[in-house]
Request: fold
Amino acid sequence: RGIARDQPIVIDYGGGYNGYVTDETRTFVIGSLKDPLMKAYQVALEMIAEVESSARPGDFPARLYERCRNKADQAGIADHFMGYGEGQVAFVGHGLGLEINEWPIIGRGYRKPLQAGNVFAFEPKFVFPGEGAVGIALDYVVKESGLERITSFPKGLVVL
Reply:
């Protein structure tokens, strides 16, 4: 079907630089997002901001995931976080390097702490059956002082 006004358009794209890969996602819309989708997008941005400001070497990826899951729960949209129904997954990010899916996994049960030099895509997304999906993915390297974003495309919703 064609793309309609006020319908989210999620583009998940990768790139390469000197043999290493990137994995990013942006949400576009022609017009504006309906309120539940806009709320979910704002929660995804809040998750990004929290992880950017707090993640450090030694943090457990499972705890980062649980903080995001709790934020989705507090917003009343946990049923839509990282998929819906049987399609829901228990992670919100994954390592990057020579391959697009490497360690660490930012997800339930992953207990090996983050280390300086880890590179990962952090990608909170929400799925609303019949309405669409929204989300964002950004790439980071773990430094001793915290996270450093390694890509520069703007974070916000792209309104066309």
